[in-house]
From TrEMBL:
UniProt entry tagged with the keyword DNA-binding: yes
Signal peptide: none
Record bears the keyword ATP-binding: no
Gene3D superfamilies: Homeodomain-like, Ribonuclease H-like superfamily/Ribonuclease H
Name the UniProt record assigns to this protein: IS21 family transposase
Organism, scientific name: Amycolatopsis nalaikhensis
UniProt xrefs under PANTHER family: INTEGRASE PROTEIN (PTHR35004:SF7), TRANSPOSASE RV3428C-RELATED (PTHR35004)
Length: 456
């Protein structure tokens, strides 16, 4: 590769009449290289490629994906093409996106201006930041409505984060998701930080709710509430929310179940633990920082909040809940019942709308696909099904049954034709027509008495 100065010198020597061989000996390079620069085939300062770039077979895929989603993260795109066989580096992908202009321009995003931010020190093991993220347009098979709910917890010192899907954001589901995230993070920090969640504090004042204070005591943590409209105060979890939305939710398939979605999120979180960091001049990773944080072990059992979720009884007298089926007494097909479960307990209860407990079952492992039946329910269901059987001869489906007179009359009415009452049908006697025809075939004879009267 020639520098700009060497390329200028080569052109000057050529104009003086030097041969290409002489210029090559003078500059100490190959003759073919000198000829390429003199002919304009090479650009000074740019090294010629001896082999095609690794990104070239994937350029069209990248262009299509970025045209479909201009805000797709380059790291997400890198994950996708790596699964397709790309062996290059992440910087080579970002360079190709920039040089080839693969990402479409988005004018609204370029009008956003930055603002000053301050860096807050977070000692190891001190703080975990929490936040709900509402994910739009969940797969239809989830029956989750317009949004899916993900609770994200992030260790402020190391940046490790984990998330758990929940059916709703009420108090009981918050506690259940908190416990699941804590176990995934590896322990409990000294303090928990929340925004003004209505299930944690009074939003207007920021004062802690008595119910959640019991939860904090159970886990042995102090609770901090962010000031109103200060999202940057918990910027670690906000960035985790961004990663969850862009790198996971944005590419989640429509056919994914809740269990599969949770498993894919867990895999992504483990992968992101490999992000490189440098602390005090020492190279490390997010996972290495998190492993060194002095976290306390989580309690052996979750805080005993009670979940309640509505379900519909199937015709087989079963209630579906968390990937399993539980039996109820027969005769409730289509009824709305509530499945209740106290966290830390090994059983679930099925309750009617009036509050009557109709079934108690041991809880199966979530997503196991198990069918848990009570022996009494099975016997009662079999009895009800057998009682509904009949020995009557079934209807014959090949019998000829043309439309009745009433149906024909109604059809005539619909067509606008005159109708008569079928009970008073007019019957025509052809004998009357025959007698009338016989009389008309004989010529009428004059009355002789009339002629005598006229002569007199």
């Amino acid at each position: 590769m020639l520098s700009l100065e060497e390329e200028v010198e080569a052109h000057a020597l050529r104009q003086r009449g030097w041969s290409i061989s002489a210029i090559a000996r003078h500059l100490g390079i190959d003759r073919k290289t000198v000829r390429a620069y003199l002919n304009g085939d090479r650009v000074p300062g740019q090294r010629a490629r001896s082999a095609p770039l690794l990104i070239e077979p994937f350029v069209e895929y990248c262009r299509i994906r970025l045209a479909e989603d201009p805000h797709l993260w380059a790291s997400t795109l890198f994950d996708e093409i790596a699964e397709l066989g790309f062996t290059g580096s992440y910087p080579s992908l970002t360079a190709a996106i920039r040089v080839l202009g693969l990402r479409p321009h988005c004018e609204p995003c370029h009008t956003v201006k930055g603002r000053d931010v301050a860096t807050i020190a977070h000692p190891a093991g001190e703080e975990t930041q929490w936040d709900w993220i509402e994910l739009p347009d969940p797969p239809a098979s989830w029956n989750a409505g317009k949004h899916a709910h993900l609770l994200v917890g992030a260790l402020a010192h190391s940046g490790r984060w984990r998330g758990v899907l929940a059916p709703s954001e009420d108090f009981a589901h918050l506690v259940e998701a908190l416990d699941a995230v804590v176990s995934r993070l590896g322990g409990v920090s000294l303090r928990w930080r929340f925004d003004r969640m209505s299930t944690v504090c009074y939003p207007a004042t920021g004062r802690l709710l008595p119910a959640f204070s019991a939860v904090a005591k159970h886990y042995g943590v102090a609770v901090d509430i962010c000031p109103a409209r200060r999202g940057n105060r918990k910027g670690v979890v906000e960035k985790a929310n961004h990663s969850a939305a862009q790198r996971w939710w944005r590419t989640l398939g429509d056919d994914a179940t809740i269990t599969e979605a949770q498993a894919s999120l867990d895999r992504l979180c483990v992968k992101l633990d490999g992000r490189k960091r440098r602390r005090d001049g020492v190279a490390t990773t997010v996972g290495g920082l998190a492993a060194a944080e002095p976290l306390r072990p989580a309690p052996t059992a979750a805080f005993p909040a009670e979940l309640a979720e509505s379900r519909t009884v199937s015709p087989a007298a079963l209630v579906s809940w968390r990937g399993n089926h539980y039996s109820v007494p027969p005769g409730l097909s289509g009824a709305i019942v509530a499945v209740t479960h106290r966290l830390g307990c090994e059983v679930i209860r099925i309750v009617t709308a009036s509050g009557a407990v109709i079934a108690v079952h041991p809880r199966a492992l979530d997503g196991a696909g198990a069918t848990v039946r009570d022996a009494g329910h099975v016997a009662a269901l079999e009895k009800a099904v057998l009682a509904a059987f009949t020995t009557a001869k079934p209807c014959t489906h090949k019998t000829r049954r043309p439309p009745s007179a009433a149906a024909l009359a109604e059809a005539a009415r619909l067509r606008g034709q005159p109708t008569t009452d079928p009970a008073h049908k007019v019957v025509i006697d052809f004998a009357a027509y025959a007698a009338t025809a016989a009389r008309l075939s004989v010529a009428p004879q004059p009355d002789p008495t009339e002629d005598t009267a006229l002569e007199s």
